[in-house]
Design a protein that fits this description.
The complex is a heterodimer of chains A (about 280) and B (about 300).
Chain A lengths: L1 H4 L6 H29 L4 H5 L10 H9 L5 H32 L5 H10 L9 H10 L7 H4 L6 H14 L2 H9 L4 H30 L2 H6 L8 H10 L7 H30 L7
Helix pairs in contact in A: 2-14, 4-14, 5-9, 5-11, 9-11, 10-11, 11-14, 13-14
Chain B lengths: L1 H38 L2 E6 L2 E7 L3 H8 L1 H33 L8 H9 L6 H11 L5 H8 L13 H29 L3 H9 L4 H29 L3 H6 L13 H10 L3 H29 L1
Antiparallel strand pairs in B: 1-2
Helix pairs in contact in B: 1-12, 2-12, 3-7, 3-9, 4-7, 7-9, 9-12, 11-12
Classes of the chains: A mainly alpha (about 280), B mainly alpha (about 300).
């Protein structure tokens, strides 16, 4: 490990230089792939067969038009991915806040058991129940539709966990009491008082849920069979499965770019909140 | 009396607000879990055009699963590729988090660096794998660069080499997770009382001693959390090797993970073996989850 070498003798200035060099190295390591992706999505297939150059070319729009007019229903993929991810984000944020509110604000029998249960199942991965899930979806006649990808988001233990943490720190019960005295119904209290207070935490969770769903590949690949109903990750897998060497590489790169960059842009705009939101639910030392 | 009944009436809403979560969870998680367990006890698959079963066979599917070398091979692949990504991840993350939190370094542009190193975590893993597949292809840009630098004479076939294929998957896992781990560890390090450091410095401790005798022991719970969540995630490794090798785990099934194996059973409709494999993974992740549960509970 590096620390062992950094004895008291090394001046702070040298240590600072070393840490900047290492940080810049890892930052470049993270960025270089996106740079190559961006460059290659502006180059035509013919240009790319001649080898790599770090200078962008002019075929960005050509590649995009070729992709849209090609055999892969990319626009449908976009729309499907947006519908699924948008609905997942909204449902999981809204209902997780509701669940957190139930546990936080009320006293009832079985409350502790309910809270422990949600905490216990938090890490159980979806893959291990996929077999039964597919059977259930077939029986419900929801195979090859987007519903099985959306509806389960109502029960999102991890989102619940983060929102409950936030609620404990930021929601004084006196506020709820005051609203009750004013005669507000419990539903109304939740919708018009609790939700606005929860907005900062919920917007971070909205993004995480959206991104998680946008990137999800395992379940959609098992549920969606018709090309026009597939989401982007499933279409990308299809691209890999095709005889891709004969494929126009310009289209391959622009499709990857189109799947990645919407998330990157949202992330860069919101990064301040997101980077702060990652650690808020983790175990403190 | 009246007041008490009013309080009960209000608290009734606790149950009502829990209904959406629990109803959804029971329908889409508990019911599938039960039918997965049920399926694991039956022989039920297609052999060509013929449907075999379902016949009740008890734990025969589990015996078959553990009795054949396939499962153990894929389990080993999964663990190996997880470890290969996790070790550099934890080393680099500890180092970066330590620097970010060191007040004497006063690093600038911290927000920029954190933003950049966290970014790969949000990238669609399947698209990222597809990108690496294109970049490291025989005629891809990486080979083109290596050729033009004169480092190699002919294109290196990354995906025909066991070591290179596995190393690429490990590297991608490392890239996607080290930023996340850095930020988690940093939160833990910033929580450490600076008086501890000052006292140690007064007593003449070196930076190395401070790191190994103060920082690491205090970080133990959070390191354990990172280890277990990463292991649970690692056991689910799927998107990257699946796309990179087109679901085949090439070369010679050395990159085939447990969940890729499960996916093969699911797509070929071998419900008995798929069920047994699912239940096995459920038990393993369940045991690991209990550790996390206790960690979180302590904090609750």
């Amino acid at each position: 490990m590096e620390e062992r070498k950094v004895s008291k003798g090394i001046p702070v200035g040298t240590r600072r230089v070393i840490s900047y060099i290492v940080l810049i190295f890892f930052a470049l390591l993270c960025l270089i792939w996106f740079y190559i992706l961006l460059i290659n999505s502006t180059r035509s297939h013919a240009e790319m067969t001649k080898g790599f150059t770090p200078i962008p070319s002019t075929h960005f729009l050509d590649n995009w038009t070729n992709l849209v007019n090609g055999t892969i229903p990319i626009l449908n993929g976009f729309i499907n991915s947006f519908i699924v991810s948008g609905c997942v984000a909204l449902l999981s944020a809204y209902f997780s806040a509701m669940t957190a509110f139930a546990i936080h604000a009320y006293e009832f029998k079985g409350k502790r058991a309910a809270a422990s249960f949600i905490l216990a199942v938090m890490m159980v991965p979806g893959q291990v129940t996929a077999l039964g899930f597919i059977q259930l979806i077939n029986r419900m006649k929801m195979d090859d539709t987007l519903f099985p990808l959306i509806l389960p988001a109502i029960a999102a233990p991890i989102t619940y966990f983060y929102l409950k943490q936030y609620m404990e720190a930021n929601l004084p019960m006196s506020l709820v009491e005051a609203a009750r005295i004013d005669g507000a119904s419990e539903i109304r209290i939740f919708n018009s008082i609790i939700l606005p207070i929860m907005r900062p935490a919920m917007s971070v969770q909205l993004i995480f849920a959206f991104v998680g769903s946008w990137n999800n590949y395992f379940t959609p690949a098992l549920i969606l069979h018709t090309d026009k109903r597939k989401t982007l990750p499933v279409l990308i897998a299809q691209l890999r499965g095709a005889d891709w060497l004969r494929f126009d590489m310009g289209q391959v790169y622009i499709m990857i770019a189109a799947s990645i960059f919407p998330v990157v842009i949202v992330y860069l705009v919101m990064s301040k909140f997101i980077v702060g939101g990652i650690s808020s639910g983790a175990v403190k030392g | 009396m009246n007041k008490k009944s009013k309080a009960t009436r209000v608290n009734r809403w606790g149950y009502i607000f829990l209904i959406p979560f629990f109803l959804t969870y029971v329908i889409f998680q508990i019911v599938p879990l039960c039918s997965t367990i049920y399926n694991s006890l039956f022989e039920n698959f297609r052999s060509g055009l013929k449907q075999i079963g379902p016949n009740f066979v008890g734990f025969a599917n589990f015996a078959k699963l553990f009795g054949t070398i396939d499962f153990w091979n894929y389990f080993e692949n999964t663990l190996l590729m997880w470890v290969g990504g996790f070790i550099p991840q934890i080393v680099v993350s500890l180092l970066l988090a330590y620097w970010f939190s060191d007040p004497s370094l006063r690093l600038k542009f911290q927000q920029f660096f954190k933003t950049v190193i966290y970014m790969p975590n949000l990238i669609m893993a399947s698209a990222f794998a597809m990108l690496f597949f294109a970049l490291f292809a025989d005629q891809g840009p990486v080979n083109s660069i290596l050729l033009s630098l004169g480092l190699i004479k002919e294109p290196f076939k990354f995906f025909a080499s066991v070591t290179a294929s596995r190393a690429l998957i490990m590297f991608m896992n490392f890239m996607m997770w080290f930023g996340n781990t850095t930020i988690l560890l940093l939160a833990g390090m910033l929580g450490i009382d600076t008086e501890l450091y000052e006292a140690a410095e007064v007593d003449g401790a070196t930076s190395g001693q401070i790191f190994f005798r103060i920082t690491l022991p205090i970080l133990r719970p959070i390191l354990l959390y990172v280890l277990i969540t990463s292991l649970i995630g690692g056991l689910q490794m799927y998107d990257v090797p699946q796309i990179l090798t087109n679901g085949k785990g090439t070369p010679a099934k050395t990159t085939l993970t447990v969940i890729m194996y499960l996916n093969q059973h699911l797509t070929s409709k071998n419900l008995g073996m798929g069920g047994a494999l699912s239940v096995t993974m459920f038990i393993i992740t369940g045991v690991l989850s209990i550790v996390i549960f206790n960690l979180n509970k302590k904090k609750d």
